[in-house]
Amino acid sequence: MKPLSAPGAALPEGSPSRPWRPTPLLYGAAAVHVGAIGALLAYPQGLGWAVAGIGATHAAMCAAGLWPRSTWLGPNLLRLPPSAEGCVALTFDDGPNPDLTPQVLDLLDQHGACATFFCIGERAAAHPGLVREIVRRGHAVENHSMYHRLHFSMFGPARIQRDIAAAQQVLTQLTGQAPRFFRAPAGLRNPFLEPVLCRLGLQLAAWTRRGFDTLSGNNAAHVARRLAGGLAGRDILLLHDGNPGLDPAGHPHCTTVLPGLLAAIERAGLRCVTLRAVVPPG
User: Fold this and answer.
1) Where are the transmembrane segments (predicted)?
2) Which pLDDT score, from 0 to 100, does residue 15 have?
3) Which positions are catalytic?
4) Bridge-partner residues for 271, per DSSP?
5) C-alpha neighbours within 13 Å on the C-beta side of residue 4
6) Domain ranges of the chain
7) Which residue in 54, 182, 203, 241 has its CB near the most CB atoms, within 10 A?
């Protein structure tokens, strides 16, 4: 087996970069900063108002970063495009997990369902055969950062780029195709993320609904209701094959909930697809 290159080596060519377009929130924040500086030069006694204005913009950007489904900091895929009206996307985070991912793959096979796996680069490098098996069975592997640091949203732009690019390199080498989508650890981010994703040709992807299946002690039926209640075409559903929560009996939520969820999708006449199969590049 060809050894993986060390993180930081040249990236294989992936999706083309795209232009970064600041959102109205970022334009507004920049305007407030410039206005505050100008006001202070003309009226130094207004320091308190200037600080308050700048503080308010930073609070707004922080709130946007703490809301995983926010589009205030840049584009964020929350649902499949209208062309995929009869489809849903099952997505799995935090793997690959040698104890759980094979079970998930078998369950998906039983229902003829495709899924998208947002893999952590470090774990993928530790289990290369499992990553290749995901792709061999017809699923997609996407980028979930190299190390899944919970303080990812506090990284500066250079560290964000190093982390995502390292995972992009590992996953591309293992699967033979560059990931097109990125999901931030815990969905948390900051204004530096979108420019980096643009340079790397990645699209940010969140979800329509999640089951909070990483919380141990949850009732599996409650997790299932959060995912299947109101199920509709174009939904993006989030489960975890890594870091799974356990039900009171000690069973991973992912494996206990998935069969019923797949059955509910079939009853609704919906088809499971990967993100890359239905979402246009860029």
Assistant:
1) none
2) 60
3) 93, 240
4) 87
5) 23
6) 24-66, 82-278
7) 241
